[in-house]
Amino acid sequence: MTTKKKLILAISSFLLVAPLSSCDLSESLGQVADGLLPNLWLTLTQVIVVLATAAVVIFLAYKPLKKKLKQRQDYIENNIKDSEDKKAQAEKKLLEADDAVIEAQKKAGDIIQEAQKTAELKAQSEQKALALSIENQKEQAHKDIEAERARMISEAHNQIVSTAIDASKQILGREVNEDDNKKMVDDFINQLSEGDNK
Q: pTM here?
């Protein structure tokens, strides 16, 4: 307790006890001459009463009040400390959550990029396979056309040979041998080829 508070408490206690000592005003005026010097016993009694009152106030009011205020202060400080700890934990968890979100976004971006690369590679592979298939079909078509052309030429050749042999038999009136036949067919085919090239 500060000195000011103690002084205020002592003065208020003295003012409460002082009127009790001067009960009769007329007697006190009569004893003015005697009253210029303080009465020792009365002063001691007043001091004892003031000290007793102060002790009672201190022990019954001030100390319990101080104890309660200290408990309240400790409670508030503990709550503040707990709040600060919880705030720090919450901030830490928030940072962890932010890091987790950033990591998840990064993984999602990586997955998307990987999927795009895979799709592009697959599309390129499909295009190459399609181009190869088309090229193979073209080659096969050319081969088929060439084979059909060769077959048709062979059939035409055989038919021409047969017709030429029949015609030469009638024109020559004799049997045409194989060498004659071959020479006539080759000449005819050469004439046809020259006609196709023009």
A: 0.37
